[in-house]
Amino acid sequence: MIKTVAVRFRTGGKIYYFAQKDFKVSKGQHVIVETARGLEYGYVVLADKMLDKKESEISPIIRVATPEDDKIKRKNDKKEEDAYKICLEKIKEHKLEMKLIDAEYTFDNNKLLFYFTADGRVDFRELVKDLASVFKTRIELRQIGVRDETKIMGGIGICGRPLCCHTYLSDFGSVSIKMAKDQDISLNPSKISGVCCRLMCCLKNEADTYEELNKNLPEVGDFVRTKDNFKGEVFSVNVLRQLVKVVVTLDNDEKEIREYNVSDLIFKPKKRVDKVNVNDAELRALEALERKEGKSLLDDN
After folding, report:
1. Distance of CA 256 to the CA centre of its chain
2. What's the pLDDT at 58?
3. Pairing state of beta strands 138-143 and 111-117?
4. How far, in Å, are 2, 30, 40, 189, 201 from residue 55 at the CA level?
5. For residue 240, which of 201, 267, 206 has the smallest C-alpha distance?
6. Which pLDDT score is estimated for 172?
7. What angle do CA 152, 12, 7 make, to 5 degrees?
8. Which of 22, 42, 112, 162 could form a cystine bridge with 9, CB 3.0-4.6 A?
9. Listing from the earlier edge strand, what are the strands of the sheet with 255-261?
10. Phi and psi for 133 in degrees, rounded to 5?
11. What's the whole-model pTM score?
12. How would you class 58 by CB atoms within 10 Å of its CB: exposed for 0-12, middle for 13-18, buried for 19 or more?
């Protein structure tokens, strides 16, 4: 076992672990560490974390950030703003079909990275040469997806809160239409897609709970027997409360909707079939959202 600290290099970025050694650090402090990209300036999100690793398997903290390190970081932030503006001008000069998202210096200024989006492949070789002659350092242009773009830029979701991907979500999980259906959310693409126009990441948050609760419930249209010995057809279900509304036929042949707890019903559980009852246009739009779900390209230090 080795004592480690969890470090992030950008808001909502992937978490990396480094050996704590004899340094006394706490959550929120900044540290200098060695990564595949060189020296990096990050902030601690968790300290004194014990991992079952050998000391040789994990890189150590180089030092706790000093006031001089903080000053260098502020200078780098200003240089990134200037680099962004210059790169925009160069993209226009080379007439490239790409959208610049962000510029990022490594802490030691050994590399300057530019993140961009584009509809297809872009031949940016001449642009890289031009940028290298201006900045006199290694240049890397990295094409990212719209989910990564949203993660970098941030924003406010339909819930009125800052986007999960920008604030705390380290990785993009797999999200499917079935998750929305299990949670009885409208399958209108405009209702279940986020700022990035992909399926909302938060659909996954309660997916396991709803999947487990749905196992105990009949489906709408199923026939059940009630505790008061009526037979009826399921009209609707309340997943969280485990309540079922059933259309029953009374002794006088009148029909009535009654609500029962699922434990008061007798029915034969059957394998649930994922039926998406939407029109063709909506279904195509939903399937397009699913196909576009992809792996983040940002976090590969």
Report:
1. 45
2. 87
3. parallel
4. 7, 22, 20, 49, 36
5. 206
6. 83
7. 125
8. 42
9. 255-261, 243-249, 231-238, 223-226, 265-266
10. -70, -25
11. 0.73
12. middle
Q: Which two tokens stand for residue 53?
A: 């690793």
Q: With contact defined as beta carbons under 8 Å apart, do 259 and 247 qualify?
A: no
Interatomic CA distance for residues 73 and 47, integer angstroms: 22
Residue type, 265: L
Q: For residue 183, count other CB atoms closer than 10 A to its CB.
A: 19
Percent composition of the chain: helix, strand, coil (DSSP 3-state, to 5) = 30, 30, 40
Between CA 159 and CA 203 the distance in angstroms is 12
Look up residue 10 and give its two tokens. 């950008």
> What tens digit of pLDDT does each residue of 142-194 get?
999 888 999 988 899 888 999 988 888 877 878 888 888 888 888 888 888 88
With 0-12 CB in 10 A as exposed, 13-18 as middle and 19+ as buried, what is 115?
A: buried
Q: Give the orientation angle of helix 67-94 with respect to helix 125-135, to 10 degrees.
A: 140
And the tokens for 102?
């962000």
d(CA 67, CA 73) in angstroms, rounded, equals 10
pLDDT at position 294: 46
Sign, Cα dihedral of 227, 229, 234, 236: negative
Q: What is the pLDDT of residue 289?
A: 57
pLDDT at res. 260: 93
Structure tokens at 213: 């609760």
R_g of the chain computed on alpha carbons: 27
Query: Which segments in the chain show pLDDT lower than 70?
Result: 270-301
118, 139, 143: which is closest to 130 by C-alpha?
Answer: 139
**Which residue in 258, 253, 223, 259 sits closest to 241, CA to CA?**
259
Measured CA to CA, the distance from residue 148 to residue 14 in angstroms comes to 12
